[in-house]
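Practice problem: predict the structure.
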Amino acid sequence: MNEAAAREEVLAFMSEMEVRPAHVQHVTGLALQLFDQLVSLHGLGARERLLLEAAARLHDIGHRSAAPGAGHHHESARMIRERAWKHFSGLEVEVVAQVARYHRKAMPELSHEEFKALNDWDRRLVQRLAAILRLADAFDRSHAQHIERVVLELPANRIIFRLESAGPVLQEVQAAHLKGDLARAVFQRDLVFMFGDEEMKPPQ
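Answer:
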């Protein structure tokens, strides 16, 4: 894969279709922060990082054409699959589409036909990348880009997220508790969200 050309291809598609570029750019930055700090747990490399970046930049493009009441995550996946890509293989496109699809709502399940069709390695890849994207998207739940940076600590059995923000983070943390379901399952650790010296507990 020509990484620079592949990234330009993704950026062109995002620019063409995205209606809220500030949000997806911010989510992409947060997703890559998380990916880089979780490398000791996920064991992935530069190729997989680029696939995460592509999914993050394109996860919301389905808003442009999704029918009222339809899930834009499904539409994003369809649009990614149907694009005439030059710098991604068919399998890479499918991984990107599924990571975008699983950024919200249901987690990957073998009852889902496209997910079941992948081999074991690629199913695990989709799970790991989607787990990261779900959290990154939650960290901009308000679309106000309040959380500027996330610093991770990895003590035994936990992932601690230290949130750096100049604004309120309650909405984002509540979303992260919910959308952290896949990360808890994939990494087999509890998730702890810290803002300053305060642990932000899940909503009651």
